[in-house]
């Protein structure tokens, strides 16, 4: 089923969340408990049941999204995801780690890696720009309405293949939380 969201058609859920709404260019989603995207590294498990509202996209593009969340439990997360398949993807956004909202990026090529950057304060919102060019994904961010100009991550991503690209949220350890996405666009 295709969904109209952010002023355009063609969106679809990969693992629909517990509840969601799409109105006036805003999507709110409430995650299911025990939802995540992760492959093996450190924890020894594979989870592929987080929530992505995405579009099928070919070639080079930049996806921008502004989001916020009512983060409360360890690893509650929201942001953006580019997904080739269950073993090749990039997710990036805010993740609650040890009670602190941190910028997070996970790149998975068979196994997941994870990096975080602590924020000086909990921003009201984050804007990400995830650019795919050739074999590279570059993640930039801005806080509280700021332009996404600061680079968080540059990573390899397989070129010349279509991907599911969109917004994501998950609650690996918590009971679920609500994330809000707005100003989501491709260029």
UniProtKB/TrEMBL annotation:
Entry protein name: DUF1349 domain-containing protein
InterPro entries reported in the protein's UniProt record: ConA-like_dom_sf, DUF1349, UCP022704
Top-level taxon in the UniProt lineage: Bacteria
Organism, scientific name: Phytomonospora endophytica
Species lineage: Bacteria, Bacillati, Actinomycetota, Actinomycetes, Micromonosporales
